[in-house]
Design goal:
Organism: Dactylosporangium salmoneum
Radius of gyration: 28 Å
Structural class: alpha/beta
Protein name: IS110 family transposase
InterPro entries: Transp_IS110-like_N, Transpos_IS110, Transposase_20
Distance between the termini: 48 Å
Pfam family, one: Transposase_20
Strand content: 5-15%
Domain Transposase IS110-like N-terminal: 6-165
Largest sheet: 5 strands, mixed
Number of domains: 3
Strand order of the largest sheet: 3-2-1-4-5
Length: 408
């Protein structure tokens, strides 16, 4: 009995599907709606193409995503599902149609052909546990909120620089996103209103947010706000003040939700059976541990070797060789969230672990810059994490570094 190869070109509200046999003959084509009805029709379509004694394990489906209810339903039904990078699919499609023509129907055909001709190169979707999926959702949401806060903070800073530079000098030591700074900006968003703030008013805000060294900070803030500076016309200043109030309101909400989501991340991560292993790794706390777990996933067999995990992480270098020329480069195509978490882990590890610091320093001695040496350090830490997860044992320094570290 042969295998059926299915190309699934998905959109927000429908799926274009093509079914091929092992000789490349098109057996079925259909446009299916998203949701339960569409999934039921897909099951019927495939059942009609399969012999009576064949099961769903004889079906290989190619689709350009690895998440969402549709993909989870396909995996649960027992089909072999391969998530294809859109760039891979585009390259395969270009090889089939040099004219550049494109349609949903043609995309489904290209995906089915890719499943049939390149099956040995495709990696099936590895289903993570429900708790790992939950950790991914809250960890990504938490990080996205932090990124949004950074964007709004930069906009706030740019606006203040345009009409109220004294506020930057006054509040920068407190941080623009701190609750006391936001409260003071909301109370006095114009230079004139800020200059009228009394030391008592400033001091009360700092006390409410539990600042230390309040008298010195109050004096410094008051002096900076009352210093003469270049400004804008009153009408323009009033317009800027309105934008500052809006930015302050957004940042205040973001601060609240980031704190709330942090609690969710810690709670969900703590329920995962591998949480202790992640927390035992050097440089990793609950938030970083949750992010690394979320991006690696916990499906058994997804990473057969430490090298496979390093390659996915993007910390392993790639070699380009042509003739006598051979160069080694960093991987520029990678999971940005994962590489950010591993970078932060390595940064913390070299500050708190002398052995890991030695490993980092050896790479710096070889002439690598800070980021390259940090990437090599993170690559070593990924290998150590892989060994701990494979053996289900927490980090042990003697086992991880049995000899004096050597730069790889």
């Amino acid at each position: 009995m042969g295998v059926l190869f299915v190309g699934d070109d998905w959109a927000e509200d429908h799926h274009d599907v093509e079914v091929q046999d092992e000789q490349g003959r098109v057996l079925r084509r259909a446009r299916l709606p998203e949701g339960v009805d569409g999934m039921a029709r897909l099951h019927d379509l495939l059942a009609g193409a399969l012999p009576e004694d064949a099961g769903p394990d004889r079906v290989l489906i190619c689709i350009e995503t690895d998440r969402g209810p549709w993909v989870r339903a396909l995996v649960a039904a027992g089909y072999e599902v391969c998530a294809i990078n859109p760039k891979q699919a585009a390259r395969h499609r270009e090889g089939m149609a040099l004219s550049g023509a494109k349609s949903d129907k043609a995309d489904a055909h290209a995906l089915a052909d890719m499943a049939r001709t390149r099956r040995h190169q495709l990696r099936p979707v590895a289903a993570d546990s429900d708790i790992a999926e939950a950790v991914k959702i809250v960890a990504r949401a938490h990080q996205t909120l932090i990124w949004e806060r950074t964007r709004h903070t930069l906009r706030l800073r740019a606006a203040l620089r345009e009409y109220f530079p004294a506020a930057l000098a006054a509040y920068q030591p407190l941080a623009l996103t701190s609750p006391d700074t936001l409260e003071l900006l909301a109370r006095a968003p114009t230079p004139a209103a800020a200059a009228d703030l009394t030391d008592t008013q400033i001091s009360d805000v700092l006390k409410r947010h539990h600042r230390r060294g309040i008298p010195a900070k109050t004096a410094a803030i008051g002096q900076a706000l009352r210093t003469a500076h270049l400004g804008q016309p009153d009408t323009v200043t009033a317009a800027y003040a309105a934008t500052i109030r809006a930015a302050v309101a957004v940042l205040t909400t973001l601060n609240t939700q980031i704190d709330a989501m942090q609690g969710e991340v810690e709670a969900h991560f703590g329920q995962h059976p591998d949480a202790e292993i992640y927390l035992s790794q050097p440089g990793i706390g609950a938030i970083l541990g949750a992010r690394v777990l979320a991006e690696f996933g916990d499906a058994t067999g997804r990473y057969t070797t430490a090298k496979a995990r390093k390659n996915y992480a993007g910390t392993a270098p790639i070699t380009r060789q042509s003739g006598k020329t051979k160069t080694v480069h960093a991987r520029y195509i990678h999971n940005n969230r994962l590489i950010d978490a591993l970078h932060r882990q390595a940064s913390a590890a070299i500050l708190n672990n002398p052995t890991i610091r030695t490993y980092y320093d050896q790479h710096r001695t070889r002439g690598l810059n800070h980021h390259a040496a940090l990437r090599h350090t993170g690559n070593r830490l990924v290998g150590i994490l892989h060994g701990c997860l494979k053996t289900k044992t927490p980090y042990n320094h003697t086992t991880a570094w049995p000899t004096t570290p050597q730069a790889a």
